[in-house]
Amino acid sequence: GTGAVARTAQSKERDIVSVLDFGAASGGSASTNATAIQNAINSGAKRVLVPAGSYDVNTTILIANKQGFVLEGDAMASTSLNWTGAATGTLMTLRGSMFCTIDQLWLNGNSLAGICLYLPGYLADSVADTYVNTQHDVTHCRIGSAVANSIGVKIATNTGTEIDNVSFRRC
């Protein structure tokens, strides 16, 4: 269309990637899945798809210094990230980012995680963040199954984050 910039097919395809492209596999190794999901997030794609399945992870999934990023599952009932790491660990952290979306995922603490989703404040933990952590959407998700007295979603010094159509289980 008018004003559109010519791009190669390869360039356009890099806008959206699947965790499968990086080696994640439903029912696969927690270590392999955590690395594959993290590599997909770090790939530079604006949208990362997590196909239906159950993906064990044993290290925190970090979404950092992104703007307009989307992590999207097929459906919260059929796409889960399951914490198998250290007891009371954090399944996912979204930090130093703006206008990001987490959609259609089950963040399953697997009766181990202390925090399922953490959104720290700007420059928290002495980390140099690119953006003030703000204006995120967490939608159509299931969050929970963490250890007793744990936290489903921890939001610290964050503005404009919307949590919509999210079910919390055992948080």
Q: Quick summary of this structure?
A:
The chain is mainly β. The chain is built from 2 helices and 13 strands, in the order αβαββββββββββββ. Helix 2 (30-41) links the parallel strand 1 (16-18) and strand 2.
- Helices, by number, come to 2
> What can be said about the biggest beta sheet?
9 strands, parallel
Which whole number gives the mean pLDDT?
87
Estimate percent helicity: under 10%
Encode the helix/strand succession as letters. HEHEEEEEEEEEEEE
Task: Please mark out the parts with pLDDT under 50 across 5 or more consecutive residues, or reply none.
Answer: none
Gap between N and C termini:
49 Å
Shape: globular
Q: Structural class given helices, strands, pairing?
A: mainly beta
Strand content: 35-45%
**What is the number of E strands?**
13
- Rg from alpha-carbon coordinates: 16 Å
Explain what the structure shows.
With 171 residues, the protein is mainly beta. It has helices at residues 9-13, 30-41, and strands at 16-18, 47-50, 53-57, 61-64, 70-73, 79-83, 90-95, 101-103, 106-108, 115-119, 137-144, 151-155, 162-169. Helix content is 10%, strand content 37%. The model has no long low-confidence stretch (mean pLDDT 87).
What would the keywords be for this entry?
171 residues; 4-stranded parallel beta sheet; 2 helices; 10% helix
Which SSEs are present, and which pair or pack?
Layout: H1 9-13, E1 16-18, H2 30-41, E2 47-50, E3 53-57, E4 61-64, E5 70-73, E6 79-83, E7 90-95, E8 101-103, E9 106-108, E10 115-119, E11 137-144, E12 151-155, E13 162-169
Parallel strand pairs: 1-2, 2-5, 3-6, 4-7, 5-8, 6-9, 7-10, 8-11, 9-11, 10-12, 11-13
